[in-house]
Prior knowledge:
Elements (H helix, E strand, L loop, with lengths): L4 E8 L9 E8 L4 E5 L6 H9 L6 E6 L8 H5 L1 E4 L11 H11 L4 H14 L15 H12 L6 E5 L7 H18 L2 E5 L3 H7 L2 E6 L2 E6 L1 H8 L2 E7 L5 H10 L3 E5 L2 E5 L10 H10 L4 E8 L2 H11 L10
Parallel strand pairs: 3-7, 3-8, 5-6, 6-7
Antiparallel strand pairs: 1-2, 1-4, 8-9, 10-12, 10-13, 11-12
Helix pairs in contact: 8-11
Amino acid sequence: MTDAVTADGLTKHYPKAPRPAISQVSFAIPAEEVVGLLGPNGAGKSTLIRMICGASRPSSGSIRIFGADPLHDPMAKTKVAAMHQGAPLDMMLPAVDCLRIAARFRGLNWREIQPWVTELTEYLGLKDSMRRLAFQLSGGQKQRLQLARALLAVPQLLILDEPSAALDVAGRRTIWELVEWLRQEYRVTVLWASHNIDELERNCDRVLVINQGQVLRFARPRDLVREFGTEHVVAELRDERPAEAIVAWALGEGWKASHAGALLRVFPSEGGDAHALIPAVSARCRDAGAELVRIAVETDSLEDVFVRLTTQGEARTSVAQA
């Protein structure tokens, strides 16, 4: 099966920029997978998305969509649909006209796609809002209308840029279910950019982690946690007041430690056993007059791993291995 997206030595320079927005990036996204695109602000995510969509020409290297060059093969672009963060809507038009205009722009016959649009807008909870002017919609409804606009025709590759940013819990779950439904029923490949790391960990087969224009890792979330996660002691105190003193003690013992309110985290020295720290941390809490609600050993989350990767700058300019 042909990969959905293949990048080979992909580089993008902008005039007067101190460094490339994307630098020698190589990866392959398997067809029919949901892949998370993860990186801090300014990492190069938007530039990468524009090149995949064929909206920006690489300075060097190549990008292929199901084997075709989106810059030179018109059919390649028809396989891609994108929901861009903050994409404008005509606020003085009814929601249904926003979709009609988008359909006309993409050469779609409105009558032919209307049954699909009806099903899609009902699924997204927009059916009763389609006659309202766009400016009258809530932030979450506008977000879902932008998604409906991207999905007027079912693509082979769907690119989502912060699709759930303005949504409540129920709205986010609707997006998650829609993505899985598109994958299962229509074999759609999804590239999903988000700052919500828990969301990506829950829904994606793999995550592509980039920073400063370079690929750090491309792997399954559980494999990233297994490779870079560490075990540490988590201690929840009844009162946060002793936390600072306990952290200072742990640092003095040569361990890494931090606290967020009454929640303490203590990391063993390299190669150390987190379980062996529990008696010492428990005793220190008692000595400090802190009442322990719980103490346990936990493993880093994907968010912990992401922070470690992006702050340590472990960029790889070679091909990212899945």
